[in-house]
From TrEMBL:
<keyword id="KW-0808">Transferase</keyword>
<protein>
    <submittedName>
        <fullName>Methyltransferase type 12</fullName>
    </submittedName>
</protein>
<dbReference type="Pfam" id="PF13649">
    <property type="entry name" value="Methyltransf_25"/>
</dbReference>
<dbReference type="GO" id="GO:0008168">
    <property type="term" value="F:methyltransferase activity"/>
</dbReference>
<dbReference type="GO" id="GO:0032259">
    <property type="term" value="P:methylation"/>
</dbReference>
<keyword id="KW-0949">S-adenosyl-L-methionine</keyword>
<dbReference type="InterPro" id="IPR029063">
    <property type="entry name" value="SAM-dependent_MTases_sf"/>
</dbReference>
<keyword id="KW-0489">Methyltransferase</keyword>
<dbReference type="InterPro" id="IPR041698">
    <property type="entry name" value="Methyltransf_25"/>
</dbReference>
<feature type="domain" description="Methyltransferase">
    <location>
        <begin position="65"/>
        <end position="155"/>
    </location>
</feature>
């Protein structure tokens, strides 16, 4: 993500205590006046590495949180999962449907903080990539619990997020998660299986959490 794109996203995100800016950004991108800084138009490489390393395959129901333009969802569908991918931004969801017109993925507009009751505890695999890290305060806490609530008994949650040490300044958006905040995904019915701190492929590399949890 270039400095200009980071500044653009930060201006819209404000203090991380609102979620309405996601639609604003995607709508501006649709109009050609902005760029979605995290949209690489390919599956997240940490996700593909994790699914390959762990031998993750369907069948089963999978959910992708904050799906954006749909690349992570399509990756999971290619592994044999019945995928529900959702985003709070209708413009993003519509763009994903256009990009993958013949997709088996169910793309839906939904708010992580107000999930359909039928989704609670309904998914064998839940994937959260970089959504929680752009929220702060009570929204971050609520979003963490909401992500965890999607996991079915016996299911798995994968969380990818920017990382920071406890004594580091959180800086500006995206605000990296501490080790304790990653552990917070297991505050309810989930159990932490493994949390790795890994560098990504950016230049210079950015440290990321790769957290796996089960219910």
């Amino acid at each position: 993500m270039t400095p200009d794109l980071r500044a653009q996203a930060r201006q819209l995100a404000g203090d991380g205590r609102s979620t309405t800016w996601f639609e604003t950004l995607y709508a501006q991108a649709e109009a050609g006046t902005a760029t979605v800084p995290w949209a690489d138009l390919e599956p997240n490489p940490l996700l593909t590495a994790w699914t390959g390393r762990a031998g993750v395959r369907g069948p089963g129901r999978a959910a992708v949180v904050g799906c954006g333009y749909g690349d992570d969802a399509e990756h999971l569908a290619g592994l044999g999962f019945d995928v529900t991918a959702f985003d709070i931004a209708p413009t993003a969801v519509n763009a994903a449907r256009r990009r993958f017109r013949n997709s088996a993925v169910t793309y839906a507009t939904a708010d992580l903080l107000d999930l359909p009751p039928a989704w609670r505890g309904a998914f064998d695999l839940v994937v959260e990539v970089y959504t929680v890290q752009v929220l702060q305060g009570t929204l971050r806490t609520e979003a963490t619990a909401a992500v965890a609530s999607l996991v079915a008994p016996g299911g798995t949650l994968l969380v990818l997020a920017r990382a920071r040490h406890d004594d580091e300044d959180p800086g500006r958006m995206p605000w990296p998660l501490t080790r304790a905040e990653i552990a917070g995904f297991a505050a309810g019915p989930l159990t932490e299986v493994r949390v790795d701190l890994v560098p990504d492929g950016e230049e210079p590399p950015v440290l990321r959490w790769v957290g796996t949890f089960t219910r």
